[in-house]
Each structure stands twice: as structure tokens, then as C-alpha cells.
Amino acid sequence: MIGEHVLVGFAPDAGGREALALARAVVARTGGRLTVAAVHPPDRPAAAGEAQASLRQAAALLDDQPAEFAAHESRGVGRGLSVLASRAGADLIVIGSRAGGARGRIAIGSTGDHLLHSATEAVMLAPAGYERREDLDRITVAYVRRPQCDEAVQRAAQAAAALGVALRLLTLAVGDDQTERLRDDLALAVRLAHDSAALDAEAVETELGEGDDIEDALHSVDWSGTELLVCASSEDAAAHRVFLGENALKMLRAAPCPVAVLPRGYT
């Protein structure tokens, strides 16, 4: 289950605070460790000092919550977070949205773009304006019938069972997609969830969103205020790496909740 050791990328801005709020919510549910990271460019003493100041600000926001803190020198924030996560043994990297994005939606900047196309750990993104919530009530898996999504269903089912939250399997039918075939695929995914986590079939909800495009289809179904959307990596991803495909990227940008992306072959 992701969240046993969470590394959050922090900067002294809205995106950094929202990422920290989401990371705190994750470890509150999983009981995992929290590491707060600030990445700064090399060969700039002033930048190193600013990174340390950022970490002090994060510590103040955490109050007395236990956490580890790390400043790291790197030419890119995404690359630096990946290196730190690997060194620390983190299984999840949490970041916020870039500045200027619409409230309630995820906007991907250079850091997110790097992580979503090369990270070896799961990546979770907070939408703009995210506020800390500890009452996660449902995990939704974006599902199409392929091995990477089957893996995501298995991991999400295990997480839902461990956390005591609902599990929903969501498929989007766009344009002229054959809805009956998609419903049959969802039925097979329910059996997979049951077999992987001993969940009753009735405990797994399925839903088919329909629309003219991915955003319309995604918004045709209900979303709670305390939900997590899980996406699998593309079949083009290298083993044990994140690589977000075009359709999943559209879902991420339209999602009204935090989104987690699993590496290919995630265990």
C-alpha cells in the first residue's frame, strides 16, 4: 500500500502548502513516515539558505507532527525529488499544482511533468486550493482492460480494505465507445478486486462515465469531497517507472480531487 513513507516537495507558496496538507492527510490515514524536501539549484549559497528557510516554514506548519526534513541540490526539482525519494526509501512523492491553475484542478508544471514521465515511485498531486482532510471515504480507479490497470485495481483494492474505505472502478466511454463491452470489462475487474483483497463484490462500486470527451465523461459521475483518483501508468512506461499516457493526463487535469499515478509493475 502506498503511503508507508511519503516524501513531499515543499516550497513557500500555495502549491507547496497544498502538497504538505495532502501529504499529512495521507500519513494520517496510513500511519506512514513523512519526509519534507526542498530542492535548490547547485552552486548558489543563497538558494541553499532559502531551502533551509522553506523547511523551517514547513516545520512550523506541521506543528508537532513528526517528520524528517531534507534539502537537496539539483538542477531540476523533479529530478531532485526522485533522487531523494530513492535514497530515503519513500514509496510516494507528493507535489502541488503549479501557480496559476484553476482552483480545484491540477495544473502540471515542470516538476510534475518530470515526475509523471520518469519517477520510480508513485506520484500524487494536490489540486489548487486543496485543504487538509483526513476523512478519505473512497478510492476511485480509472480502469480500462489492460495489465497496468489490473495492477492498479489490485493495489487499490488492498489499500481500500486496509483503510476501510469504499472502492470504485470507473471507466469512461467517450464518443462511440461500445458501452456493453466496457461494462463487461468492469465486471471482470470487480472479480479481480475481490480476489486480491477479499472484498465482497457488493463492496466494490462500478461506474461508466459517458461524454463527448474525457472531461465530459469524467464529470458525468459524482465525486465526493474526500476522494482519491488512482491512475495506472501507460503501457509505454519502462518497468517500475511512471509514464502517464495522453488520456490519463487529460483525466488528471480534469479531476476534481487528488490524483495518484502508479509506476508500471508497482508492488
Portion in strands:
15-25%
Number of helices: 8
Given helix and strand content, the structural type is alpha/beta
| Helix content class | 25-40%
The biggest beta sheet is recorded as: 10 strands, mixed
- Provide the gyration radius in Å: 18 Å
Order of helices and strands: EHEHEHEHEEHEHEHEHE
Strand order of the largest sheet: 3-2-1-4-5-10-9-6-7-8
How many beta-strand runs?
Answer: 10
Distance between the first and last residues' Cα: 8 Å
Query: Which whole number gives the mean pLDDT?
Result: 92
Could you walk me through the main structural features you see in this protein, from its secondary elements to its overall organization?
The chain is an alpha/beta fold and about 270 residues long. Helices cover about 40% and strands about 20% of the residues. It contains eight helices and ten strands. It has a ten-stranded mixed β-sheet, sandwiched between helices. Strand 6, helix 5 and strand 7 form a beta-alpha-beta unit. Helix 5 (about 145-165) crosses helix 6. The chain is globular and about 60 Å long. The model has no long low-confidence stretch (mean pLDDT about 90).
